[in-house]
Amino acid sequence: MISFNNEQKLIEGEIRKFSKTELEPIADEIDKKAIFPIEIIKKLSDLGLSSLIIPEVYGGAGLDTTSLCVVLEELSKTCASISTILLVNNCLVAFPVMKFAPEKIKEYYLRKLTKGEIGACSTELGIDLPGESISIRDTDGKLMISGEQHFVLNGEAAHFVVLPISVSTGKALYILDNNPRIEQKKHHILGLRAAGIVGYQFRDLDIEADTCLLDGQEAVDALMQIRHYTHIGFSAISLGIAEAAYEASIKYSKERKQFGRAICEFPMVQEMLIDMKTRIEATRLLVYNAAAEYDKGDTNTLSAHIARLQSGEAAVYAGIKAVQVYGGYGYIKEYPVERFLRDAKAIQVLCETPNELRALIAKGILL
Amino acid sequence: MILEEKYEKFREKVRDFALNEIACKAYDIDLNEKFPWDLIKRMAELNLLALYVPKEYGGAGLDTLCYAIAVEEIGRECGSTGIFLAAHSSLGVYPIYVAGNDAQKKKYLVPLARGEKIGSFGLTEPNAGSDAAGTQTTAKLIGDEYIINGTKRFITSGRIADIIVFTATKDPTMGYPGISAFIVEKGTPGYSPGKDEDKLGLRGSITSELVFEDCAIPKANLLGKEGDGFKIFMETLDGGRISIAALALGIAQGSLDASIKFVCENKKNGRPLKKLQSIQSMIAEMATDIEAARLLVYQAAMLKDSGAPFTKEAAMAKYYASTVGMKATDAAVSIHGMLGLTKEYPVERFMRDEKLMEIGEGTSEIQKIVIARKILGK
After folding, report:
1. Report field, pTM of the whole predicted structure over 0.90
2. 3-class SS letters over B300-364
3. Looking at residue A86, what is its pLDDT?
4. pLDDT tens column, A103-122
5. Homologous superfamily of domain range B119-228
6. A186 chain-B contacts, CB cut-off 8 A
7. Which residues of chain B are within 8 Å of residue A316 when distances are taken between CB atoms?
């Protein structure tokens, strides 16, 4: 059983209130027009609800992983783009800075985040795409970065960016302030349309030597840790989307009448609701189990990978079925369920595909 | 499946057209919601708009199997163009072909079949979806005219259609015996298309509301007899389901084509994706599901062409093809990973387009009811 402590319940209530008053009115519009909701992030930041995992000494909320999941899940019930932005700020940006940066850099970047600034992080594609590589050259003691990153999460509105990249010597982790010379490439993306996912093009941009946080084996290990932590966050977002799709289906199936009765009375509609609910309950246990294990200091990544795989599938399933329950009305943008489906699919393949996750799980269980 | 050579020849002809003229436009049609007027003109020139209608009525004089193959091959490149063809042929043309009298056929069927006019079918209403017999639109006979009042919704090609077959009831409390089918022409006073829907997929097709406000329709535009409406739309949907099944099949095949190309062209850590067993497993499942769907679709079409009952088989084909189609298009996006979310690849479009196949012309749940009734009796 999952039981939240008082602080977590309090946060859940806060976010619920915020979602209702601030997110609900704009969620459809920012999706449709692909607007990065910078004002909303500022408001969340002012309420102390954006820099969730950053320690209080840097002005953050100092929350644990379970609390982080509570926030991400709850926000995702209304708008998964917003929760994705927070996930990136926390799991992909604050986390590596907290864990792997020297104090000076920590102070600089974590303070930026707690002031409401946006951090971005590039993701490596699961395939070897020609042109998709970054090179860093040392020219007369000056470091120059060039190349392309196809997907930079939060990239559109970022004040600074974390770059996990492959270099000739292996992996490396860089962090740099945004620069007008970094060219952005806009994507028309299926889901998470307001999350500011863009491509970055670097053309001989000179960077400071201290922008490299880690390289070599240290970087490889760090990337593993970041991924582990991020999977837990993503699984909370998928869970929230699945719940949103389910709640909407319950509500609609009670209201919509066909053949003289509410469609929720038909066993074939109930079948869909039951299958959604069963998956959601299982997913919830997996997500909060992974979070609790992490908070206990368990470094085994298996539960996080399983939670991510299950939640990704559950959310896509719930999205598809929610559109089905709504029928023709589910297929149009007057109702939010088609957005839930698109967001669910986008989250499912972000950073790691289900196939790659399965491979990681196989590694874990065959140890 | 080994079809007679003439069908494979026919497929090649449509495939060439789809590859050479549709494939390059599908991206733009979807992204910019461009209704494909130019492609419709080309389909008319190629005589693809009423394949099963005899030549004397302006059709191609072929059969339902050819029609299914055409929808499949066109849907394989562009769902929006495919749904236009399916709606025009099965919903616009078919009810007039089966239930129209000679005068109606001459006046309406011929220009529809030739593609000079665009056809549409107004059945669904805001409160009559799966319960299509729950129609609230009324038709009152006053003198020589029927006066129509009511609203239809989710009507494919509604706003642009020149000739619309629709259902209305003498009295909404009567249920299906009260329903008749009528023909209305664009521009008839009292009839106006309402707003278009902003949809998840099939964004290059037009889906509209149709509004009737004291719209007077000549008695001559009654299709069949009064009270035939239910029978006419059930028959229309039986045939229509074959075309939606064919479209579901085509879209699924399109997502498989794209996935094959992707895994053959790309590598992961230096190793071709197609060499990964997990990828092979997914491709094999998609291909097997799609092949099984193809057999069901062609079987339903062949039964219809033979004159045998095909209601159950058409429902099975639509249910199965759309279910495995949804699974295949979803898997195709997963295979592409994050790249599959972008419009640089067609797979997210296929997934969005495919979802309607589980809903339109009877949801999967309705198909299951139809199938069960045929197996178990009423």
Report:
1. yes
2. HHHHHHHCCCCHHHHHHHHHHHHHHHHHHHHHHHHHHHHHHHECCCCHHHHHHHHHHHHCCCCCH
3. 98
4. 999 999 999 999 999 999 99
5. Butyryl-CoA Dehydrogenase, subunit A, domain 2 (2.40.110.10)
6. none
7. 330
